Amino acid sequence: MKRRSLLKTLALGALLFKTNSLGVTLFFKEKLTLIKKIDISNESTEGGEIICYIEDNKLCKATIEQCWESGKHLIIILFSNDNKIDTVLEAKVHYNRPFYFTKRTAMEIGDTEWFDDNKTKILKNKFFFSDGKIIDFTTNYSKQSVDIKAVENYFNSRAGFIIDEINKKMG
User: Fold this and answer.
1) Is the model's pLDDT at 9 over the cut of 80?
2) What is the pLDDT at residue 10?
3) Which own/partner pairs from 148-151 qualify as long-range (CB within 8 Å, at least 24 positions apart)?
4) Under a CB-based contact definition with an 8 Å cutoff, are residues 133 and 116 in contact?
């Protein structure tokens, strides 16, 4: 199974890259430089990491991946020149069964369903920020179900953590 293929696609940081699951194309003027990887495996059962990139010596992008046996959470944060969030692309991937749940396992316990990548559901969000506040967003599910204040707090907290880690690195 290709558990990390989506993150690898997101993390290539070339002149142009496509993210099929998120349905977006991003353009960068120059090749991005990987500046830091942050282990966040203690935050999920199957591991996780944050990968930070700079362009022209400024933080411009961070990718976050957290994996669980029943799915994963993928985030791309694009930063403005003043280290504030500009755009967030988010994909919440939900498997129909845990990734290790095979047909054989299901039959042994009398279940009629096992992991099937074709039954994976992906919830996609794109948030646009200005001064730490969401000014617009798109989603492939009900907009009414999005708690804007909670989303702002979550992403601003993540961004603050990332910026602190980058400042330690660049010291």
Assistant:
1) no
2) 39
3) 151/127
4) no
pLDDT at 23: 42
Per-residue HEC secondary structure of the chain comes to CCCCHHHHHHHCCCCEEEECCCCEEEECCCCCEEEEEEECHHHCCCCEEEEEEEECCEEEEEEEEEEECCEEEEEEEEECCCCCEEEEEEEEEECCCCCCCCHHHHHHCCCCCCCCHHHCEEEEEEEEEECCEEEEEEECCCHHHCCHHHHHHHHHHHHHHHHHHHHHHHC
Give the confidence band of 71 by pLDDT, cuts at 50, 70, 90: very high
Domain span at residue 157 reads: 5-170
Parallel, antiparallel or unpaired: strands 133-139 and 58-68: unpaired
- Residue 62: burial class (beta carbons within 10 Å; 0-12, 13-18, 19+): buried
**For residue 34, what are its two tokens?**
């990987």
How many domains does the chain divide into?
Answer: 1
Q: In the numeric block, which tokens belong to residue 44?
A: 């999920």
Dig out the tokens for 113 from the structure: 């369903």
Question: Quick one: 52 exposed, middle or buried, by C-beta within 10 A (0-12, 13-18, 19+)?
Answer: buried
